[in-house]
Structure formats: C-alpha cells, structure tokens
Task: inverse folding
C-alpha cells in the first residue's frame, strides 16, 4: 500500500473525529481513534504508529499475534496499545490475556474468568469492555442487555480485569442503537459508583463515526476509512 495514501487517509479520519467532537460539544481528546488493522500488514501499522497513532484493533488472533511479534522490535511500535475486537473462543483466552492491552468483546462470564485467571502477573490488569447485543438478535454476538447485571458483577470481582465500559456493533437497520446504548452506559455508571474506571463507550465505525460521537461514543473503531477496503 502506498505510504502517503495511508497517512493522508489517517489524517483525514483524524480531522473528521475532531470535527464530530466539535459538533457534539465533546472534547476530541476524550475520543480515542482505534485503527482497525485486520488483514493489513504489520508495516502499515508501523507507518501509522510513526505518525502518532497509538491504538490498534485486531480481530483474528493468529494474524494479530504474528503482527505483534513482528513489531515488537521496532522502536516506533513500542507504544502501541493492542485491542482484541474479534470473537473469543474459550481455548484462545490465554493468548489474548498474554498479548493484548484491551479486550472489547467479552460477552460471557466464563470468558471473563479465564482472561482474569490467565492474565500474567507481570503485566498490568487487562482492560475489558462488555460487548452488548443491543439489537437483541439471536444471530448476533454480545451479551443481552438483560444478562448485563450478572456479567458486570462477576467482572467487578476479578482483580486482573479492569471493566472500562461497553462495546456494540449495531445492526444497520437499527437507527437508535447508539442512543439506547448511551442510556445503558449512563444507567450502569449511576448504578455502580464503585466502577472507578467506567469511561469507555466503543461504538462507531467508518460509516457512522460522527453519529456515534454525537451519542457519547468515546472510542470509534475505524478500518476501511483508514486502510482502504479489505479483500
Ligand atoms: C472490522 C471491524 C471494524 C471496522 O470496520 P470498518 O467499517 O472497516 O471501519 C470495527 N469494529 C469491529 C468489531 C470490526 O470487526
């Protein structure tokens, strides 16, 4: 991929996030741009890291581990914060707990427990988001809103996890998913004053970032608009 094309895209997306924050009267420094680099080579990640992009999201574990390994020795990549945003199989939790800084797709108690038990002692606690199936669709991943209280209580009791907030991937037809999730996010914050790090609402992708930010998103996950289309 052409390096300048990539940098131009990234700068444009960055400017769009800042503009959306101004529109929404929220502060751009409070909205994190997560660059979703799935299927893209490690060198594209290094290029953006050199420009100052810190947060990268990966969906496919094996591919992610290879890239993390490849970038380990590169000075520009030293400060990268890795987010796991793919679905989690039970037998993959150890690799995730050992190699990522954040996991955005926690949807079941058993997965949270395994991530907690497997987080290495020499690393800081793992930041986690609960993925919510906000459309209540059988076919979609995520915890149903009705199951949230139990999952949140469980995660709160785990010392090696820090519960930071919620993540959603809404159905395209659902035009008020962002507003409902914002409400859910605020309700949980009010109900659990002891959740000291409850500060992250991960919603919005290439096509709907501005709308998500208008509804209180604090983290937009952007792939295509930065890296171009995927194979
Ligand atoms: C691929 C992916 C994205 C990025 O989607 P784009 O439309 O390419 O911006 C965001 N979030 C998740 C969970 C993804 O899997």
Result:
């Amino acid at each position: 991929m052409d390096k300048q094309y990539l940098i131009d895209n990234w700068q444009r997306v960055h400017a769009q996030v800042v503009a959306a924050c101004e529109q929404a009267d929220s502060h751009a420094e409070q909205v994190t741009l997560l660059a979703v680099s799935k299927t893209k080579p490690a060198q594209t990640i290094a290029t953006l890291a050199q420009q100052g992009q810190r947060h990268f999201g990966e969906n496919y574990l094996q591919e992610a581990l290879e890239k993390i390994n490849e970038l380990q020795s590169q000075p520009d990549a030293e400060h990268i914060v890795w987010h796991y945003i793919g679905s989690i199989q039970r037998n993959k939790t150890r690799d995730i707990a050992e190699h990522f800084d954040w996991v955005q797709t926690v949807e079941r108690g058993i997965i949270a427990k395994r991530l907690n038990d497997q987080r290495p002692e020499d690393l800081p606690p793992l930041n986690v988001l609960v993925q919510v199936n906000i459309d209540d669709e059988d076919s979609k991943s995520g915890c149903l809103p009705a199951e949230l209280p139990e999952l949140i209580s469980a995660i709160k009791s785990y010392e090696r996890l820090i519960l930071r907030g919620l993540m959603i991937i809404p159905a395209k037809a659902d035009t008020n998913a962002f507003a409902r999730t914002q409400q859910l996010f605020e309700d949980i914050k009010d109900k659990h004053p002891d959740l000291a790090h409850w500060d992250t609402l991960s919603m919005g992708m290439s096509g709907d970032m501005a709308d998500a930010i208008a509804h209180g998103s604090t983290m937009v996950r952007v792939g295509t608009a930065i890296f171009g289309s995927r194979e």
About this structure: The radius of gyration is 17 Å. The mean pLDDT is 95. The beta strands are 32-36, 55-58, 81-84, 102-106, 126-131, 161-167, 200-202, 219-222.
